[in-house]
Amino acid sequence: MGTETLDNVLSSESVTRIDKRNQPCGRDAMADQQTAKLWIQYLDMVKILQLFIKAERPGENGEICTLTLRKMLPIFAAAGHS
Questions:
Q1: I need a labelling partner for 43 at 20 to 30 A (CA). Which of 26, 33, 57, 74 fits?
Q2: Taking Cα atoms as reference points, which of 49, 20, 48, 22 lies closest to residue 36?
């Protein structure tokens, strides 16, 4: 317990199943429901955060970090952090 790495967790069967259910066709079907919209946005933010954590590891490609920061900027702007 507590010895799992981020890569192991992200490639686990449960995360893969959740990700498959969160595909674009499912998003369109749930787009009119407010709670579903909120959860979709939350899952997108979690994916960005996971990518950021991976990008900050030593030896990772600098382009991944730049891409992640670009995706994070609108979130910070919407939250009022400048």
A1: 57
A2: 22
Whether the pTM exceeds 0.90: the reply is: no
Task: Say if CB 71 and CB 48 are below 8 A apart.
Answer: yes
Model pLDDT for residues 62-81, shown as the tens digit of each residue: 788 888 889 999 888 888 87
User: How far is 52 from 64, CA to CA, in rounded Å?
Assistant: 8
Nearest 5°: phi and psi at 42? -60, -45
How do residues 37-54 score in pLDDT, each as one tens digit?
888 889 999 999 988 888
Residue bearing tokens 């967790």: 9
Map out the domains of the chain as residue ranges: 8-78
